[in-house]
Design brief:
Low-confidence stretches: 27-57
CATH architecture of the largest domain: 3-layer Sandwich
CATH topology of the largest domain: Rieske Iron-sulfur Protein
Distance between the termini: 72 Å
Number of helices: 3
Largest sheet: 4 strands, antiparallel
Structural class: alpha+beta
CATH class of the largest domain: Mainly Beta
Strand order of the largest sheet: 5-6-7-8
Order of helices and strands: HHHEEEEEEEEEE
Mean pLDDT: 76
Number of strands: 10
Helix content: 25-40%
Shape: globular
Number of domains: 2
Strand content: 25-35%
Radius of gyration: 27 Å
CATH superfamily of the largest domain: Rieske [2Fe-2S] iron-sulphur domain
Amino acid sequence: MSQNDQVINPLDRRTALAGAGVAAAALTLAAACSSDDSSSSSSGKSSAAAAGTTGAQATAPLTSTSDVPVGGGVIVGDTVVTQSTAGNFSGFSTTCTHAGCKVNKVENGLIECPCHGSTFHLDGTVAHGPATRPLDSHPVKVQDGNIVRA
């Protein structure tokens, strides 16, 4: 065997092994992407429709309208739900637009971020910086006495 054969053969083995690894990963991905759609009916309905659920049933309530005080709000998961005036509900992200901290309190008509002192009005606009942008909207609606994502 020449010196060139010794240099080329290990690279050929590596290339073959790498190629086999890529092929195995591609087959695994293809199998995962073509999951069994037996939960869908042959009429083309989604699995949720086939299971008998509707979009309204699939939307879990964030909170009850009675849990959101007029002139205040509540934090539910990643959403701040406010009620600035009676019956006027809004939803916003809990992520502060200043540095990405999570707001943690709705008090005295303000949404408060504990990290750097930013506060937001109940409509999501900045009341006091350092944040300069309003909270991102998480549209909500009232459905059967509950607040759900719109």
